[in-house]
Records
---
Amino acid sequence: LTTLFLKSTMLKRDFLFVDLRAGGGGRGIRISLDVGGEGLLNDMDPRAYHYIKRNILVNKLEGRLEAYNQEANTLLNMLVLSGITLDYVDVDPYGSPIPYIDSVFKPLCKKAYIGITATDLAPLSCTHPRKTLVRYWNKCIRVDFEKEYALRLLIASTAMRAAALGFAVTPLLSTVYKHYARIFIESERSYNRAFRVINECVGYIWYCTDTLERGYTRDPYDTPNCTSGKRPIVLGKTWICSITVPDTVSRVLLEAEKTGFLRLETLKILEKLRDEVSINTPYIRLDKLCSVLKVNMPKIDLLVSKLRELGFQATKTHMDVRGLKTNAPFEELARVIYELAKR
Ligand SMILES: C[S@@+](CC[C@H](N)C(=O)[O-])C[C@H]1O[C@@H](n2cnc3c(N)ncnc32)[C@H](O)[C@@H]1O
């Protein structure tokens, strides 16, 4: 996915990138071979460093890639002092990327890209709310759209840290797969844009635990009542704008279709992503909704086509096989589910 993203997004071939925690260097080498650019492949572990050097030689990339054996933050801060600016940084830690985020932005050039992996889905999706609060400064409860919650929280947290340093971020492509989240963002050095991004895109999600209704708000005190008459719970701060840009997915998908050796699963994820990207409302877990409505769960494909027939946007999501993304109002969605259950 990283090389597909860079191939379709990086307009110049003479770019400079850092693979911050490179392991054996596989990803950085693939970037260099498939996309181009010059890169620093870094890993703190001396054994990993040894393999990075060897893999650079084996692939005859000595002129374009250099191995480093530094602690990730140290390397980035050294780069700031050297005046070298980066076009792309890849952050692929075990667990949370948060310990590296502040350092990542500082050596970036005016407009650059970052690929971030997070494997700490438990705190990101509120399975461990205490950790969520400590690490992501977010008070949460468990929600049915937990994977999307994880992505939105990761993006909001990155955007707020970036803004404090004078960088504005735009999430271009966001995915959750198995045990990890991966986001690709564009960063621009601009306090004015950073203000606009935080002002518009960092907000709250209101959520009804009894009916599963949900929506976004910029003002945590300005939320509708649940249809049950109860007050919703307000979760945040989180990212409330789009988490993927439609044009980016289309370009990545085009690149993917040209690539023969790609795993079928990657293509399927990208196709689902293309379909779901225009619906910003968090997906709803159909099994949980049907349990609230006390009806048998209809086939998700049937529900999707019924909603589309009625003129709503509706699609499955790559994030969860039980998840439905739709812009249909809650009452309408419930009505269609009841109607399908009667058949
Ligand atoms: C998840 S692996 C990276 C895998 C690699 N990106 C790949 O695709 O093969 C994480 C790597 O980070 C390295 N590492 C851990 N803490 C680090 C730190 N603070 N600075 C630099 N490298 C670190 C580990 O040695 C490990 O090789």
Note: The radius of gyration is 21 Å.
---
Amino acid sequence: MTPASAPTVEHTADVVINGLGPVGLLATILLGRQGYRVHALDRWHTQYGRPRAVTFDHEIARVLAMIGIDPDNDPAIDFHDDHYYWLNGDGEILMEIDWLGKEDNGFRKRYWFSQPELEDRLRVIAQTLPNVTLHFGRDTVAFAQDEDGVTLDFRETVPGLRTVEYAEGGESGRIRARYAIGADGANSFLRESVGAEMTDLGFLFHWLIVDTKPEVMPSYRTHHFQVCDPVRPTTVVPGGPGRRRWEFMMLPDDDLQEMLTPQAAWKLLEPWDIRPDNASLERLALPRFEAKYLEKWHHGRTMLVGDAAHLMPPFAGEGMCAGLRDVVNLAWRLDLVLQGLADGNLLDAWSDERRDQAKWYIEFSVDLGKIICITDPAEAAARDARMLAEHAEQSKVGPLPAHETILGPGTWVAEDGTAGKTGIQGRVAHQGRTGRFDDAVGHGWFLLSIPEAAGDLDPGLAADLERVGGRQLTVGGPDSGAEVIDLDGTYSTWMSEHGALHLLMRPDFYVAFVAGDAAELTTRLDTILSGMIVRAAA
Ligand SMILES: Cc1cc2nc3c(=O)[nH]c(=O)nc-3n(C[C@H](O)[C@H](O)[C@H](O)COP(=O)(O)OP(=O)(O)OC[C@H]3O[C@@H](n4cnc5c(N)ncnc54)[C@H](O)[C@@H]3O)c2cc1C
């Protein structure tokens, strides 16, 4: 597509970000914090406020903590120490997933919030960054890329509407940038502009989403559960402090327009003892639950992220989480590319890593959907019989463990069983600061070595590590003389369990590799750095 004519304002930027949902906002914040000139825009003047994400996982908790939102103490976020239950129509347990307690990165397995509130928080953070310009009420109408950069044209929209109409005499502008990020959601304009098409896995159901504010929080058997009742599959979950969320599957005979009304919602809520006299309806929506993904996320100077690159039904509560992972992984790569240290190969590796992991989540969510979206009584009875037997067997050893995922092939050492997965985080002391590693030491590339093996690092590789903003730090117990004191023994225990003298952590909190001796450190670090930075030919 070619840019439209005669812009009335023009801007230049390092990165232009189309779409200021949670994913575009996080991308804006991360690149803005790195000092880049970011222009980001969204077609709506104020937040759309649709009822969507209500839960995020421990990995996202660590990301939010990095940008100053403390999930354990934030008034807009809460948690419930409880498992995740899948019940049949008779209330029997079909599946019990372990959502209790904390993961080994120091955060709880699950947190609960309201997406509009989180987006407000992200907006406030983005607005404080001096090199970031946010354009609200600006719709992208044309986009083109060439060898040197991208050109994006936008038009001002009429405020207060929920359809895109252009303001008469309103601003029309052009942003010229070195790179573009398409964070513009399921119907991404940038995705279409670069000619990318999603693969559709053929999963499609309509569900009614009902967000409520009960006067007194109802107490059910458990906090979060799915009711796999063929009469009306239903999701019952928290919606953040002071809120509860219901999701009702729409059936073939339902009139979707009629269902999207407060009257229909109250009727569905009645059996849950939620009524107009004890609760208020906050938001209603009737989205499609779909499963789609893009094969290639990096197109020239444009990267597609979030719902623009992947869509999944929300049964695992991972759609937004996947989008936030996209940009945490992208931000450090784009930093190196913008500095001229890395080339497009590093962005291709990003695309491969993220696509495979997002695909895993999509397939996992579809599998969960196949359990609950059953309306045929005979099929439901067969499912119940099978799952009740499986649950009886599983419960002899405890609930099902929460899922663990791995990145697609990319900037980590594939033959290392610890790599490509999220890393641990312990409490440490460092230069007078005590707390979680991220708070006491900071963020970035860290080669953590036990003090006795500090000298294993080749000076040439140490210099290259420094070029990408990384550094080596020794880690050990209080009497070890290490630079980072491992207060609870988290690192020493984990490293000795994995036979590691060295651990390379990435800025997105993933493990790049561990090494058990100097030779392994040299080989593995060289592999990682060679895949990242463009080195002068010898
Ligand atoms: C019912 C439901 C429940 C969910 N629950 C969870 C959950 O519990 N946990 C979880 O992790 N995920 C959940 N999700 C998924 C999550 O809400 C989405 O994955 C997430 O909102 C995607 O964020 P995004 O920033 O990629 O896209 P969006 O939030 O869609 O933002 C895209 C933005 O781009 C803007 N835009 C689009 N086109 C243009 C244009 N041409 N010009 C300018 N701006 C444009 C739009 O206005 C919009 O603001 C749920 C989804 C649904 C529907």
Note: The domain at 9-76+111-198+292-367 is CATH 3.50.50.60 (FAD/NAD(P)-binding domain).
